[in-house]
Queue: 4 jobs
Job 1
Amino acid sequence: MKRMTPQNLRTPGPTPIPDDIVEAMTNPMINHRGPEFAALIKKSTEQLKQVFMTKNDLLILTASGTGALEASIVNTLSPGDRVIAATAGAFGDRFVDMAEAYGADVKRMDFEWGGPIDPEAIRKALHDEPNIKAVLVTHNETSTGVTHPVEEIAKIVKGEFDKLLLIDAVSSLGCIPLPVDAWDCDMVGTASQKGFMIPPGLSFISVSERAWEAQQTAKMPRFYFDLTLAKRSLEGGQTPFTPNLSAMYGLSRALDLLLEEGMENVFGRHATIGQLTRDGVRELGLKLLVEDEAYASDTVTAIKVPEGVDQKALMGKMRTEHNVVLAGGQGKLTADIFRIGHLGSVDKSDITEVMDALRVVLPEVGFDP
Ligand SMILES: *Cc1c(COP(=O)(O)O)cnc(C)c1O
């Protein structure tokens, strides 16, 4: 296959990979039951704990992000367990579907797409149904560009009701603060191809003491994602099954880069770029799906397709004439919005390029502000 020219890849995953991470990934294969791998996984696991801000167990799985989320469900729940799953977008919906697929009795709580999950509604639901075992929430809803108020939700779920809290942090961890221990989150799952600047193929999950306790009696079927196997293997510097070695090399370099930059600075960079993106969109005369700055995501921005503009033509021209790859909408918003991803390896010039290209393309596809 011919080598492709790098694009300004503004999808909310996969995200661009810095050159020295690409270089790290060209390392030769090693024995994943040997000492070099043991050193690699032990170091990366400790560094990942810093990124997750946790002392909990942290496991690296060879899977996309969905694998980590599935692991959070099957390791803590039994068929028939009553759980709350709050959703305001395509990824919230997927968390519902996964829990249902494994036989959980899901109390589905729907919130408006483009708005936040209301913590008060969760408090009321937990109050009304004392038999709820767990609450499932998405930290950053990638399909709408909303960051849900997980800190407030955690105070209720953990502080007031002491239930299990399972979090989809696939498009937020390492970009938007999610201090796992400070917020007392039981299971938090994320993936390599979003904030971590490496290809798809790895997911990371933190597991609290409470989650391990739940695991002992959880009866949902599991094999590949049985986290006791992963924990036991890790003690010997291994994984139960063959790990994605190339991505592990990339991860090691990526974690060095993140920790050298400092997580506070990484969060600050995403906040600055999120703001730059939203300001740029407004300046072009476009409408954001999420107007409220309190919930606007600093990793992905959704923009309403203006009246009379062909979304596919817009995205096509951006890609073919300006080398900028945008994302469309998902689920019921598929044709109504387009999205700009700004997570992982991203700086101001990447966003300036997007805005410059939009300024040229919008009038060509019928935009009349
Ligand atoms: C990307 C994403 C997922 C799915 O991750 P995969 O790596 O495709 O399995 C889940 N949740 C959120 C919030 C995401 O952004």
Job 2
Amino acid sequence: MRQSLGDVLPEHGTGAATALRTLVRAVAHGAADPADPLCAAHLHTPPLALAVAADLAASALNPSMDSWDQAPAASELEAQVTRALAAEVYPRHTAPDAIVTTGGTESNQLALLLARERSGTPVQIVCDESAHHSVGRAAWLLRLPRPVTAPLNDPAALDDTLTRLHGPVLVVATAGTTDTGRIDPLPAIADTTDRHRAELHIDASYGGPLLFSAERRHLLTGLERAHSVTLDLHKLGWQPVAAGLLAVPDTTRLAPLDHTAEYLNAEDDTDAGLPDLLGRSLRTTRRPDILKIAVTLKALGRTGLAALVDRTCAAAHDLADLVDKHPRLELYERPTLSTVLFRPTGASDEQTAEIRRTLLVQGRAVLGRARADGRLWLKATLLNPHTTTGALQTLTELVEGSTPR
Ligand SMILES: *Cc1c(COP(=O)(O)O)cnc(C)c1O
């Protein structure tokens, strides 16, 4: 990379063709390719070609979503698509809405901010240890008390925790944890939070697209009982980064974000009927990330998206089967979404970590790692719907071949 880059800012430029060729090639050559079935460490998605094409068009058109005069059509598209996606989460509400974010991190931040603004006093976050690290960081950013952890899969323990706490509480549950892909028991959590008059936010960054799948939607039962829901379509939605959303059951819930700047949304313009966009984000200039999402929804439809979700989850079950049948590999649990944790039987944590590092440094496979039940596991996060059983077989062979004896 250093060689192809040469002088970063030459006195006289190389011209477009050379610059594009050398730099794009160098980055592609040294990329961790998320489409490679053996590159499965993170929730790092192989983007759909059509979403990439739409994203390129968005860059060329360059509408900015902070004021109507910069994005008349794109802002109308955003309004329609965000409402439609929010209605997937909140089908029984009359005015569900969603705002577009840079991903799960920003959506979780905004969810905590809205909870703080609703309560008027510092709100106490309660979450499971498996909650995404961005939840604790958002509490820090917003000067909220440090989150209290409670095992959300144990309703009695959550009940105890909520009984002990005084003042406003926001429980943050996860639909698809980053480490194992587990979905917290949403209906039981919603019952408990209701009983204590606590509020509920659900981080469905990973599991949200199960909504499209008739076969798997039931796993998200209870989602609509949350005060807000994080979605992140640059994971199981195959969008290029960034494609986050924060859904709320009613558009009025977004009112705390309202903001006026004379040059972008003067009151007399708003009174005269021009759409007021500034309150749809904390950002000002903002990319039309909705375009690639809209193109994808239209091109694939619900059944097309469901097929991708189902195939990806099926690939995880294939891998779990291979591990299960393997005499020298141990499976952590059957996958809920598309994450599979496994390790060589009898290996130490150090050896397990070493296997991951060896495969990574040799450029043969990129696996993640996760701690579960006090042990370190190799983590395969499958996001390529076209992953074959043969490729997964290769993955298990590579792990076995790198296991010290
Ligand atoms: C990925 C993820 C996030 C963070 O999303 P970004 O898009 O990386 O900001 C938050 N929560 C969960 C559960 C995630 O899997």
Job 3
Amino acid sequence: MNWEQPGDGPGDESNSDSTSESGWDYDRLVDIAQRHGTPVHVLDTARLDRATEHLYDVFGGLGRPARAYYSVKTNYLPYLLRRLTGHGMGADVVSGYELEAALAAGFDPADIVFNGPVKTDAELAAAARHGVRVNIDGEQEIAALESIAARAGLTVEVGIRISPGVPVSTSSDPSYRAQAERAAARNRFGWPAGSPQLAGLVEEIAGSPHLSLTAVHAHLSSQIVHQDLMLQALGRVLEEAAVLHRRFPLREVNIGGGFGVPGIRRPRTGPLTALWTGQGGAAPAQDDEPVMEVARLLPELDKLMQSVGLEGVTLACEPGRWLVSDAMAMMTQVMSRKELPEARWLILDGGNNVAPWAGSGEIHRLTPVGRKFSDRRITWSVAGPLCYENDVHATAMELPADLRPGDLLCLHDTGAYSLGRSNNFIRTRAGIVAVDGDQEELVWRAETGADVFALADPAVPGAQPGAS
Ligand SMILES: *Cc1c(COP(=O)(O)O)cnc(C)c1O
């Protein structure tokens, strides 16, 4: 893939200036990498603040109250959570420990929603105790929460998760579209708008004296870039919400997150293309990837809500990736360069364990930094350090021909789904350095082998949490 790298094109003085069009100060990133070692993530709070402010600007232009619940699972870094509470942001949590992290970071329980397909009785009881609203996504949650609320003498506000049943992504490959349609119809999160199952559950909530249905919730998937499909899908949810609103005055319609970011690219091909290329056929040209614009999406939803009869109802959303993706980047080092008759590999010290999308086909930009590189670009395959086949960042990426061990690369867009999904298969997890103007702070230290074995029972001698 020929990934366009602004400012780094052929003939350009590659990375000779310290600030790129990506906005990252590469000299500073190199300095952090040299002092902390690689791989290391860097969080730039100014980038996070900019995204948050943009969202609130969009909210300010809507004809109704609007609010955001940050998706804690996207990046649960306590430093980041604390930073977001300062913006009047709420939190979307999907497990008990996320709820604890959100409360510890200072989110007001009234600004937290509890989502997810599984909520244990203990988690439901904690939510009820704190006054956290629960979006029902399992039949059994209704009776469990009713009995918890009845025992405590409380009324618990609940929402219900609705799915539109239609896909929010598309491709010129018909086999991709067929797959996406089937997956949307079978989606296990929420209940389909208009389905008898949904109607039955609404009756059950209505018959639960200690539950009060005040919200409709949806969350369609992640990295959605096809804005029109998202609007069509959410239109179905809004119509269902309008029907419910006539019977149960709703406080809010929560459309979830999933807003796509421009910095990453997901494969949009299906089994037909896989079959074709697997037989040696040339890979088809990639579709142009649309760009999701929250500044267009939310006003459209505002209008749709008005037109279906949801006046005065709050428009809520749960951005995760869109807020944090490009607020973090990861510095990694070339460890090995391998020229084979059929391939040229660059092997980095950061792979799937610290950038867990590696191997999924999702491509993030890689920018060589720290010295002047050759203008000649060649096609590299880029892998991480792990001893398993899928630890691959890209099978074909245009990068300078003279990359060699010791060179540093900046992997962009590591703010979403890195920390929480990282793992210590073969190599330990990376630390995170936060920069805030001139300030710099290590806000998550790198994991050590001792951390890994600290969970063993009997304890492994010398393995103490926190030992480095
Ligand atoms: C994961 C998740 C989100 C955030 O998704 P992004 O793609 O990161 O915006 C929001 N709401 C719910 C219920 C989720 O599970």
Job 4
Amino acid sequence: MQGVERSIVTIDLGAIRRNAETLRHVAGDAELWAVVKADGYGHGSREVSGAALAGGASALAVATLAEALPLRTAFPDARLLVMGPVEDVAAAREARLELVAVGVEVPEGLPVHLKLDTGMGRWGLSELPAPSRDVVGVMSHLASAEADPEFTQVQIERFREATATLAGLSRHLANSAGTLRFPEARLDAVRCGIALYGISPFGGDPAADRLEPALRWESYLALVKRLRPGESTGYGRRFVARRETWIGIVPVGYADGFRRDLTGTRVVVEGTPTLVVGTVSMDALAVELERPLPTGTAVTLVGDGVTIEDHARVAETIGYEIATGIVTAQGRARRVVRNG
Ligand SMILES: *Cc1c(COP(=O)(O)O)cnc(C)c1O
């Protein structure tokens, strides 16, 4: 690894484009809307949006006004939907955005989607008002499509019933898990985030749904040292050598998004899955090596068989949180994109 950076995140835009094509195929007659909030789930929203549109997505969706404005500049003609509440409706109108009515107040003077709460218990109305003339769509959000088929069926049924008589409005309900597993949830458009990035909404192998991970995260061994029996590495002395062993220090820590609860996960050192040992600190993590390796040896934190889902399992969280947690600001991981 050259330069000053301690780790590099590489985004394969070809993988994003192919995932979009796959999801569009799965969605059948429904349109694919690409969810690129949270900086494209940590992948870079502008680049990801371009790849998703090239792969057949017909709209972009984000959570906030601030996320939408730079995308409007980059994509003057794209349909752009803000799914969360927006205070500054004038700015949204100016930027030709589409908004969602998440409560009783319906924004005016721009295309609006009414959000019905069918069981998420978060944003959304418990009953649909008569649509005003700005209303172009009706939506809801699934609470548990990756884990609870019965409750998902209840939500789908509630939504279909509540919207059955609304002719001419676009009905959209499915997230990635809903799109992949519930054909009856696909309706007029599907809103896919996590699957677009090649991360499984089910926490398993993305290849099972023909999805390709788009993110690689690489670093290197900055230091290799021998520990004698009884010597330890890291805060709290959580790893103590029982026999003579070798420890490699990788200059990536929880401030880079390699979480403190990832002790016990594996990263790939010279092609070999290798255990992360001791406490992950702010700026460094430790791996136990079979033998002394030269400093500068490549370490793959995500990629080469280690997935974001693997790390999520160890940290007892979801892939979404691992991906959005990688820090590319202020000289932490450097993000580069390539067109694979
Ligand atoms: C984030 C979000 C999605 C995308 O969900 P994934 O599980 O990432 O596909 C869809 N709809 C709404 C309203 C969202 O907030």
